[in-house]
Design a protein that fits this description.
27% helix; binds guanosine-5'-monophosphate; 5-stranded antiparallel sheet; 3 helices; binds zinc ion
């Protein structure tokens, strides 16, 4: 897609610090890293989000992210743990609408994290968990 920044990077029309490349995907350094070593793994073809992403490409992105994660202890990157993060949709924090899987090195005191909502400490009743599980299960099996 012409106007997509990640398509431009894939096509070589915009610069990026590449980490890994194969037929299906490209991994490169995030331009505004949460922590040093923050990598994005993107499909080479343009898919907006999980809605149009073929499952086998999604699996491949995850496998590459896993390999990047496991390489980190042998690099100079400070990484006591790793978050894999994918924002699906604007409300979930997606800013670039070309699917991408974040590989974010984490360490104690890095200051990054999820902020929980006001109801987080109120645990739902089992009946509520069961009801939602039933709905999702039904839709998945449709
Ligand atoms: P999102 O918020 O959509 O999950 O993540 C988008 C990510 O893309 C952000 O972490 C942002 O820093 C990164 N990003 C945006 N534009 C560019 C760019 O031109 N080059 C690189 N390398 N990363 C970018
Ligand atoms: Zn794109």
């Amino acid at each position: 897609m012409k106007s997509c920044i990640f398509c431009k990077i894939v096509n070589g029309d915009s610069p990026a610090s590449k980490v890994y490349e194969d037929d299906l995907c490209l991994a490169f350094m995030d331009i505004q890293p949460v922590n040093p070593g923050h990598v994005l793994v993107v499909p080479k073809a343009h898919f907006t989000d999980l809605t149009d992403l073929p499952a086998h490409i999604g699996s491949h992105l995850f496998q590459v992210a896993q390999r990047i994660t496991l390489s980190l202890p042998n690099t100079g990157v400070k990484s006591e743990g790793v978050d894999l993060f994918l924002a699906h949709g604007e409300a979930a924090g997606q800013d670039v609408f070309h699917v991408h899987l974040h590989v974010i090195p984490r360490y104690e005191g890095d200051g990054f994290g999820f902020r929980f909502g006001p109801n987080y400490s109120n645990l739902p009743e089992r009946s509520e968990l069961d009801a939602i599980a039933t709905q999702i299960k039904y839709e998945m099996e449709k």
